[in-house]
């Protein structure tokens, strides 16, 4: 838990507070003044800040442009565990990884909040990925290699036991019994389901995937399947909007609010289906998944799954991305994003005979 008071409102992010927060990274730093250039509201609020430092800050190489991410909106209390998870990820997990991540200068959580101060990626030429711009084969392979490195780091590690060092990470569950599952169960109610099936996103989804009862059954089947597989640290929301390419084209991952303990196929399936044009996915998926499995071995996994086991896991996990992009509120993702991604999952389910399309 952080000893430094963590801001709960945008106006509490002051030059004085920022300097105090950054002093752990750069002793003696003082922030002489700041300019808030933008505030991006979402599940987590991102304040884009330009900072002017004293000599100690400049000598430490602190960037002028920073992103302060925290729960600063009215809904903060409802999802504060998301902010706490991301802050603890950057404080406790990120330093032990060798994957593409933004530079982080402060990360802390307390009972009410989680705050991360990281670099603003834009001045260095990084590009945030967009679901309307599917990846090339080489780009997808590079992201999968980083996912393999993430998954391999704590593959079936005792640290992921409930009482282990990383037992604080929630277990991934597509439809949990706890209160966090209320959203998914609510989206499966007949009237709500009918509403989403009437939106533009549904027009490109195969009709076999629009059966509400079959969808519910497939989600329950995934709940039974996932705990039986290897457990690792997963990103939990590995779609293109949470990824970037740096100026050299190297992959990077953003938004670790949903980091979880879970099955590798959750990340892999969610990523590659959502990130590729369906025709490219059909042509490349065999080689891409084989490449991911080989990368697990390179990153130290001695018991990586074989191809038959891997494809069974991918089929089982297909329903997660399909369901949540089909019922994604427009307050969370613009309809143009939902309409781009949901059909990709629908046709992948049909192509691979994955629930709820296994009978096709």
TrEMBL record:
InterPro entries listed in its UniProt record: Aminoglycoside_PTrfase (IPR002575), Kinase-like_dom_sf (IPR011009)
Domain Aminoglycoside phosphotransferase: 88-297
Protein name, entry field: Phosphotransferase
Organism: Rhizorhabdus wittichii
Phylogenetic lineage: Bacteria, Pseudomonadati, Pseudomonadota, Alphaproteobacteria, Sphingomonadales
């Amino acid at each position: 838990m952080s000893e430094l008071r963590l801001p709960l409102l945008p106006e509490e992010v002051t030059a004085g507070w920022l300097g105090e927060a950054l002093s752990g990274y750069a002793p003696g730093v003082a922030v002489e003044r700041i300019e808030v250039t933008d505030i991006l509201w979402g599940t987590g609020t991102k304040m884009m800040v330009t900072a002017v430092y004293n000599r100690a800050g400049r000598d430490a190489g602190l960037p002028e442009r920073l992103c302060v991410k925290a729960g600063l909106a009215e809904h903060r209390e409802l999802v504060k565990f998301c902010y706490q998870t991301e802050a603890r990820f950057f404080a406790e997990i990120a330093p032990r990884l060798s994957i593409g991540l933004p530079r982080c200068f402060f990360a802390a959580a307390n009972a009410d909040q989680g705050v991360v101060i990281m670099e603003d990626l834009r001045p260095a030429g990084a590009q945030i990925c967009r679901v309307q711009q599917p990846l090339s084969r080489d780009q997808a392979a590079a992201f999968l290699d980083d996912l393999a490195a993430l998954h391999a780091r704590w593959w079936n590690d005792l640290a992921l036991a409930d009482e282990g060092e990383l037992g604080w990470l929630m277990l991934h569950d597509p439809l949990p019994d706890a209160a966090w599952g209320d959203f998914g169960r609510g989206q499966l109610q007949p009237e709500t389901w009918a509403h989403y099936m009437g939106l533009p996103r549904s027009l490109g989804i195969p009709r076999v995937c629009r059966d509400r009862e079959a969808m519910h059954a497939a989600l329950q089947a995934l709940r039974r399947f996932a705990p039986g597989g290897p457990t690792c640290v997963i990103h939990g929301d590995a779609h293109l909007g949470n990824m970037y390419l740096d100026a050299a084209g190297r992959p990077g991952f953003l938004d670790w609010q949903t980091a979880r303990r879970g099955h590798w196929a959750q990340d892999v399936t969610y990523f590659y289906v959502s990130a590729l044009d369906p025709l490219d996915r059909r042509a490349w998926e065999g080689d891409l998944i084989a490449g991911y499995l080989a990368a697990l071995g390179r990153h130290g996994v001695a018991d990586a799954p074989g191809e038959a086991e891997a494809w069974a896991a991918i089929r089982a996990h297909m329903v997660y991305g399909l369901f949540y992009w089909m019922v994604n509120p427009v307050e969370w993702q613009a309809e143009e994003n939902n309409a781009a991604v949901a059909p990709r999952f629908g046709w992948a389910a049909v192509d691979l005979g994955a629930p709820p399309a296994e009978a096709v």
